[in-house]
Structure formats: structure tokens, C-alpha cells
Design a protein that fits this description.
Layout lengths: L14 E6 L2 E6 L6 E4 L9 H5 L16 E5 L5 H9 L3 E6 L2 H10 L9 E5 L2 H7 L6 E6 L14 H8 L2 E12 L4 H12 L5 E4 L6 E7 L7 H15 L6 H4 E3 L4
Parallel strand pairs: 4-5, 4-7, 5-6, 7-8
Antiparallel strand pairs: 1-2, 2-3, 8-10, 9-10, 9-11
Helix pairs in contact: 5-6
Length: 256
Amino acid sequence: MSTPADKPQDVLPEVSISEDRGVRYLHLDSPWVQGAMRIQRPLELELEYVRRMLGWLLFVDPDTVGGRRAVQLGLGSAALSKFCALKLDMKTTAVELNPQVVSVCRQWFQLPPDTPQLNVVLANANDWVRQTDEIGKVDLLHIDLYDHEAAGPVLDDADFYGACRRLLAPEGALVINLFGRHSSFAHSMRQLSEVFDPECLWAFDPTREGNTVVMAFQHPPELSAAVANARATKIRHYWGLKNGDWVQRLRTWEPA
């Protein structure tokens, strides 16, 4: 997760960690959890909503995932970045505004030093998506941009989502964490709907904590229940990713 685009770096929130029952948590000046890692299994995805951020895997042949391109806007505890690079074998870039978050992830969340496979860019996400040369190359674009108050996404308008869509490969998807029971959710979906056609928008049911993971595809995807179930089984087998309820809880977006 990251911080607002107009917030100067000298007043970025302090980063802290806590631990409970074998899990280490990342915080930004508040009790809100910005990321988590099970200390004895650092590559596993501890939080349910973070696992659902990989729901894109249902829409592509699992045998074609290695070598594809992943980007995270907001590093959080580096869980998705590590998983995409080290488990899925995707070429991965994370964009993070707060240098403290990067340092803490290196020291406490087993984020490795930069390599061609996994690198962290210290930058404003809004600037990065407009300046990068990755146009048409990104298969999986994760967006998890909340400030320390976690009141709503800090970049959440059609102009930003349009800039993100330019980066997507033909089978690519923008995958965003939203608060499904928060007033910001309807606004976020309206903004996404200005950029993506309804048939391009898919969403999981909210988690128990209220996180709603939304996927916006470059082109309308095709996914039958039979194919989804077969791929879910492969995903569990290949990468040990818990996804037992994905198919049942995933649906096309139907605006009110």
C-alpha cells in the first residue's frame, strides 16, 4: 500500500511492525494492517484478500504464467511481489512511494535485493504509470494504494485507471483491492466503469473483513465453470495457493 500523490516524502507515515502467533504485520502510523507474512513460511500469502489478488490466474493457462509481466502499485509487505517473482516466475516490478516501506520489507519481510526478476522502483505510482515504457506489456497489474488511514484508494479516478489500462497486455488485467462495504466502493466502480466495459469487470464477493478484489481486463475474458475449476486445481498443485472458494465467489460485475 502507498500514500497520496501530493503528500511530501518528509511527512510520509512512520512504518512499524507487530507480531502475533507467528505472523508479522506491517503498519503505517496506525493499527491498520498494511501487509502480513507468516514468519516460518515467508512466501505463502497469509491474508485472504491478497490471495484473491491472484484470481487472474483463473483466466490464463497456468502453463503460460512463467515469464509473463507483473507490476504492483504499492509494495505493502511485499507478499505479492515475492510470490509473483519467486513462485510464479513472473518478471516483477513493485512501485512504492515510501522508502521506509522498502527498507522494512528488506529487513523484516524477506524482500530480496533487486534483480532482473524482481525489482522495486521508488516512485509515485501516478507518475510511474504515465512515464513507463511498459505500454501493452503488463499481464498482471496489482493496485493496492491506501494511506495510513485506509479510508479509500488514494488514486481512484477514471484518468488514473485509463493510464493503467494502457499498460495491459492483451490477456492482461488490472486487479484492485477495494473496501466493498465502504462508501468509497461505489465511487471506485463508477470510475472503473468509465474506462472498462461491463463485460471486462469481474469481482470476488467481499471477504469477511470487507475487502473486495476487482479485476478489470483489457479485453472481455471467457471463462466457463469447467475451465475455472480445472485451473483452480492446477493452481493449488503448481503453487500451493489456497483457492478453494474462488470459483464460487467470482462473478461478472453487475452495476446497480
